[in-house]
Amino acid sequence: MRCPFCGSDETQVKDSRPAEDGASVRRRRECSACGGRFTTFERVQLRELIVLKSTGKRAPFDRDKLMRSVLIALRKREFEPERVEQMVSGIVRRLEATGESEIESKKIGELVMEGLAKLDDVAYVRYASVYKNFREAKDFEQFLGGMDEADHE
What we know:
The protein is of the alpha+beta class. 46% of the residues lie in helices and 22% in strands. Strands 1-2-3 form a three-stranded antiparallel sheet, with no helix packed on it.
């Protein structure tokens, strides 16, 4: 594993422990060259996923990008990092379980919205506003009206 500080390939694992309910391994590493310490995670990857974007382009699936988009929606909100990690891991597992190597970006967005709806209402609305491309206040009103109806069912 290359050191993120100096780029050296000489790093040593100092501590390993299960993470994400056993779905990954968290490793603390130390660089032999500069002494820097950093954390890595090792996860099972069942297959390489390709994202089919609405523009028709294809891009490799990036778990970190998915996590960043969720964290942006949750910015300045109180949340448990473990629940967010579980949500993202669950989304990745569901995508891998489809058996498809190419996944439409729309499907990923729907799964994120589903997860955020259970996690935090404000983050859910923030994500939806970007995902559904809200242009004006009435778009929010219609979306929030739909949320209220869903709550009463």
